[in-house]
Amino acid sequence: MTLSDEQLDRYARHIVLKEIGGEGQKRLLAASIAVIGAGGIGCPAIQYLAAAGVGRLRVVDDDRVGLDNLQRQVLFGVEDIGRLKVEAVREAVGRLNDGVTVESAAERIGRANADALLAGVDLVLDGSDNFATRLLVSDWCTAARVPLVSAAIGQFQAQVGTWRGWEPGRPCYRCFVGDAFDAEDCDSCADLGILGAMAGLAGSWAALEAVRQIVGFGEDAAGKVHVFDGLAPSMRTLRIAKDPGCSTCGRLAA
Fold it and tell me: pLDDT digits over 38-64, tens only?
């Protein structure tokens, strides 16, 4: 692949970084990334991945835009209320970078359709809001040997982790949370609240980690969870150990 004059101009600030350069930009242009959830995390992540020149974005979300989304889901405006999020995302990305292909899936991912929705991608960025989806996506990524960047937010906290659980000594997301489940009485974002800027931080951070995995720069973040406390403010990094009894990557290792 040869970068065109327009691409050299558009991505000049990437190309001058020795850690990315022209070859790294070519990797981004050739990459395919699936984003699970076009919500508070997915919106800023999609913005920065599209701006970075990721060649193909596959966006999976079956929801429609609501007025209460606009406080943190920055790809949408009042004119998008009632529309499918994936349709609004496609238009927003087209305005930002017409060189990015957006594949929209207005579906909820599950075991029956995960293969069809995720096949052929180089990385999955998960910004979903429940353990059932997160664990399903993690299990799929581990089995398919596709890197996973998982991000979560709540009130004033954000956490981002990168997972390649099929590798020796590397944990998967299930090693981190175990066989977690969504309790029926579990408080939601609507009940507890969320500072909108925390969604922007988590989504941008997740996009950074996705770009890191595609290009390969800096310290490898796989197996680490970064936690940002917006009240303090402070940040800490947790190194997660591989669980030999993990029902996903532990079985693969065995």
Answer: 999 999 999 999 999 999 999 999 999
Amino acid at 228: F
pTM for the whole structure: 0.94
Specify whether 246 is catalytic. Answer: no
pLDDT over 70 at 185, yes or no:
no
Domain ranges of the chain: 13-253
pLDDT level of residue 163 (50, 70, 90 thresholds): very high
Pick the CATH number of 13-253 from 3.50.50.60, 3.40.50.720, 3.30.460.10, 3.30.565.10: 3.40.50.720
Q: In the numeric block, which tokens belong to residue 104?
A: 């929209």
Annotated catalytic residue within 141, 172, 189, 246: 189
- Structure token digits, residue 145: 């040997």
State the sign of the Cα–Cα–Cα–Cα dihedral 173, 178, 179, 181.
Answer: negative
Alpha-carbon distances of 16 from 23, 207, 240, 244, 253, rounded to whole Å: 11, 19, 34, 43, 40
Q: Whole-angstrom Cα distance, residue 190 to residue 180?
A: 21
Q: What is the pLDDT of residue 180?
A: 75
Amino acid at 130: N
